[in-house]
TrEMBL record:
PANTHER family: METHYLTRANSFERASE TYPE 11, S-ADENOSYLMETHIONINE-DEPENDENT METHYLTRANSFERASE RV2258C
Listed GO MF terms: methyltransferase activity
Nucleotide-binding as UniProt keyword: no
Annotated organism of origin: Mizuhopecten yessoensis (Japanese scallop)
Matches recorded under InterPro entries: Methyltranfer_dom (IPR025714), SAM-binding_MTase (IPR053173), SAM-dependent_MTases_sf (IPR029063)
This protein's UniProt keywords: Methyltransferase, Transferase
Lineage: Eukaryota, Metazoa, Spiralia, Lophotrochozoa, Mollusca
Domain Methyltransferase: 28-144
SUPFAM superfamilies to which the protein is assigned, alphabetical: S-adenosyl-L-methionine-dependent methyltransferases (SSF53335)
Single Gene Ontology BP annotation: methylation
Pfam families hit by this protein: Methyltransf_31
Protein name: Malonyl-[acyl-carrier protein] O-methyltransferase
Length: 239
């Protein structure tokens, strides 16, 4: 068990380190960083350690997850945790955060449009949003032969789709796919500046986004891809 925990900790630390590098590269400043849907802080706490000059906040709807996150981070002074609903973040957070992270969260949400609207509310005018989600195509045929996609889609049918279907929810899950996701993000008021694979893995895409001018509260729709994928696959910035 300790060996498994050690492997997972090393994996999370590697992800956090790469996320900190993305933040340093793309954010004009990162004094205040928010991780929404942080769970037990497996990424949030090592991210705070990788960003010692930043104040990192993690929030989640689960009281148990936040309790565990606090217990696992008591030696890290620049991270704090609280219970919050991503569909209604505190008003005193308005334009507070230079960086907002959504790690493996977006496809699980019942109401992603409302969540992105709240993210835009708390995002500083010149801030960035980093969204990490599974690298699975919206076209099932394009996932044939992709072991990572098969694993993600299987787990999604047990967990992601049921949880995102609650409260008359969207029921998206992993099968929503990156093409539809990019269309959604664009229509929701974000500009995708870059898309990269985290730690050179084929499992996740990390999107670095900025606010689209005049986009607050824009209506989001589902659809096909909305970025230059030929450039994205080469890990070049998307303008």
């Amino acid at each position: 068990m300790n060996y498994v925990r050690s492997l997972r900790a090393n994996y999370n630390n590697s992800i956090a380190k790469e996320l900190s590098q993305l933040i340093a590269t793309h954010a004009e400043k990162h004094k205040n960083v928010l991780d929404v849907g942080c769970g037990t802080g497996d990424i949030t706490t090592p991210l705070a350690e990788a960003l010692p000059a930043s104040a990192v906040t993690g929030c989640d709807l689960s009281e148990k997850a936040i309790t565990d996150a606090k217990l696992g981070s008591f030696t890290v002074k620049n991270v704090s945790y609280g219970i919050e609903n991503i569909s209604k973040l505190p008003e005193d957070w308005t334009k507070k955060y230079d960086v907002v992270l959504m790690f493996d969260v977006l496809h699980d949400l019942q109401h992603p449009e409302a969540a992105i609207k709240q993210v835009l509310k708390v995002l500083a005018a010149d801030g960035i949003v980093i969204i990490v989600d599974p690298k699975v195509s919206s076209d099932p045929l394009k996932n044939v032969g992709n072991i990572q996609a098969a694993q993600a889609l299987t787990l999604s049918s047990w967990w992601c789709i049921p949880s995102s279907s609650c409260d008359h929810g969207s029921g998206l899950g992993v099968g929503w796919g990156w093409e539809n996701k990019e269309e959604f993000l664009t229509k929701a008021g974000l500009v995708i500046k870059s898309r990269v694979c985290i730690i050179n893995s084929d499992y996740n895409y990390a999107y670095v986004c900025k606010r689209k001018l005049g986009s607050y509260g824009s209506r989001a729709v589902h659809g096909s891809g909305a970025v230059d994928r030929s450039r994205a696959e080469r890990k070049e910035p998307i303008h």
